[in-house]
Write a structure and sequence with these properties.
Structural class: alpha+beta
Distance between the termini: 89 Å
Strand order of the largest sheet: 1-2-3-4-6-5
Number of strands: 6
CATH class: Alpha Beta
Number of helices: 6
Helix content: 40-55%
Order of helices and strands: HHEEEEHEEHHH
Largest sheet: 6 strands, antiparallel
CATH architecture: Alpha-Beta Complex
Length: 201
């Protein structure tokens, strides 16, 4: 659920009191552990934490006009969520995160990068703070570029191998039509022989 707020203060002010309290508490944890090279603002209708263009000019590869997203905090329709892009695609980091969370005794409701929760008590704040602290902007940029490069390398060999060109639909139709014509011709030949035989008689 994307907010129309243009500042973090506006976003927080738009929330019901219980959600504002929970989101604000998690925001405090993020800011306490956030590397100085990240910035906070509104991104994709959520409270976002990102690498600004002055630090990483290339921006987000899906939309270079956007700064590189790192984390987000949002109030959705049926839950609240923290999105941790620094964990996405990092098996070792994700393993640590899941195990550390489990040790707190709190249930983890996690997708690829989002941690969903309905109340503040559901969140392992120390683990969340450590996950943010473990990913300074420079290390996050290196990780991001490494993932991009490996994706390009995987695509290149597949493109080099190539696939046999599939028959186009018009060509397939012509082939069917010519087969049908051949069958008609074959069917007419016996009839022609019978007609010739009658004439002789």
């Amino acid at each position: 659920m994307q907010s129309k707020a243009t500042t973090v203060d506006q976003y927080l002010a738009s929330l019901p009191e219980d959600r504002r309290t929970a989101i604000s508490a998690i925001r405090d944890v993020i800011l306490e552990n956030l590397d100085k090279d990240y910035e906070e603002g509104i991104q994709y209708g959520m409270i976002g934490y990102y690498v600004p263009h002055k630090v990483f000019p290339a921006g987000y590869h899906c939309d270079p006009k956007q700064p590189l997203p790192f984390a987000s905090l949002a109030s959705q329709k049926n839950h609240m969520a923290v999105y941790l892009m620094g964990i996405y695609g990092q098996p070792r980091h994700e393993k640590w995160f899941r195990e550390a969370w489990a040790k707190t005794g709190k249930k983890l409701d996690m997708g690829k990068s989002c941690v969903r929760f309905k109340k503040l008590q559901d969140v392992a704040l120390d683990v969340l703070g450590e996950a943010i602290r473990r990913a300074p902007a420079k290390a996050y940029i290196q990780q991001y570029e490494s993932v991009l490069q490996s994706t390009v390398k995987k695509k290149a060999p597949a493109a080099a191998k190539g696939k046999p060109a599939a028959k186009s639909k018009p060509a397939a139709k012509k082939a069917v039509a010519s087969k049908a014509a051949a069958k008609k011709t074959a069917a007419k030949k016996p009839a022609a022989k019978k007609t010739a035989a009658k004439k002789r008689a």
